[in-house]
Every structure is written in structure tokens, then in C-alpha cells.
Amino acid sequence: SAVISQKPSRDICQRGTSLTIQCQVDSQVTMMFWYRQQPGQSLTLIATANQGSEATYESGFVIDKFPISRPNLTFSTLTVSNMSPEDSSIYLCSVQTGPGGYTFGSGTRLTVV
Amino acid sequence: EDKVVQSPLSLVVHEGDTVTLNCSYEVTNFRSLLWYKQEKKAPTFLFMLTSSGIEKKSGRLSSILDKKELFSILNITATQTGDSAVYLCALNFGNEKLTFGTGTRLTIIP
Questions:
Q1: H/E element holding B104?
Q2: Cβ contacts (< 8 Å) between B44 and chain A: which residues?
Q3: Among A96, A99, A104, whose Cβ lies nearest the Cβ of B42?
Q4: HEC letters along A7-40
């Protein structure tokens, strides 16, 4: 199965600033998924990132707040913009690694103060 | 909105006990149901279920899907402290996106 390197592992950021999270996959994948997990909650899909096209955002998430880049088939970034304390969450990237199987990055724990 | 509900929300048991975690859903047009274990940040894959009534087994863990009654269960026998984690179920609707359940936080007391 694929191995995903995600960074940073954690960060503490000031409100109003932005943070870019990176995911590097050790194999080429068509789609990469970005999830958010707020404290005590389950995972919620933010967007699907396809190489060569704009990301597809889920209801409640917008490109201005969570811009995504997908420059090639092994790499993607998610930026959390103009952060507020409500953005404090774990952010995870994920790829499909076979029929029904999904692998997740190691996660980024973001705290906004 | 597609809804996936897990129960209980949290569970505390003693080492050696057997636990059964439940995942209920309201939709029928999904391709598979998946179970994950989340210890720190990254969920790790446990099972994928596509057919009703066929048990998947891996060591002390097993899972089964009931498409008629719209639920799945995850069983863990002879629990160990290393089983302490949040267990998540998710539905795959075939568009490669996963809809996750609310999660069950399992704590195993030595």
C-alpha cells in the first residue's frame, strides 16, 4: 500500500495567519482527499484534489478558506487561511490504495491561538 | 446528508473482555463499509465489507455487515490495552469519498 508523508506533524499558529500542510505519496495516485477532524468529532471531508484540475470542495468548505494545490500525481498541499480558533483540528490527507482501501497521512494537529 | 452513527460513543472495559461496536447507517446505495482504528492521528485500515452476512476476521478482530438491517458490528475478543483507540466506520459510495461515522472511543483498563 502507499506510504504518505505529511508535514508538519503539529503547529501552533496565531489567529489571522495561514498554514500550509503538505502530503507526499510514494506512488502516483489520481485523487487525494483532505479531511478535517475537529476535537472529539469524526473525520469530515474537505475536498478532493485531482491533478491538473481544480479541487472539488464539499458543502461548507470553500476555496478561499482552504486552497489546495495538486501540481503532480504524488504531491498536494492544503492551506488553512486566515485562521481562527475554530480551525483547531487534525488535518489528514488520504489516498485510495486498492479496492476499497484507503491510506492516511500521519496527520497535522493544528492549534490556533 | 448521509448519516453514519456509531454506538456506543465511548466504552471502558477491562483487559480480557470482549467488546462489540456498532455502526448503523440510513442509506443503501453504498459500495462498501470500512472499519478503521485511530490511535493518535492517522486512522489505520481494519476491514472492508461489501457483502451481507460474510464475516471478516483478523486475529482477535472480526466484523460483519447486515445490509437488511443496515448495520455492521466490529467484535474484539480478549481485549488488550493496545486495543484502546477510537474505532471509526465509513461508507464508500463508489466515488472514492468516504463518509465517516461518529466513532467509538474504546478504553481498555489493565
A1: strand B104-109
A2: 104
A3: A104
A4: ECCEEEECCCCCEEEEEEECCCCCEEEEEEECCC
Interchain CB contacts (distance < 8 Å): A and B: 52
pLDDT band per the 50, 70, 90 thresholds, residue A66:
very high
C-alpha to C-alpha distances, B11 to A103, A113, B54, B79, B86, nearest whole angstrom: 26, 32, 26, 12, 10
Task: Write out the three cell numbers for A64.
Answer: 478561499
Each residue's pLDDT, cut to its tens digit, for chain B (110 residues) gives 568 999 999 999 999 999 999 999 998 888 899 999 999 889 999 999 998 888 999 999 999 999 888 999 999 999 999 999 999 999 988 777 789 998 999 999 99
In this complex, is the C-beta atom of A111 within 8 Å of any C-beta atom belonging to chain B?
Answer: no
A109 CB neighbours in chain B (<8 A) are 41
Residue A82 contacts residue A67 (beta carbons within 8 Å): no
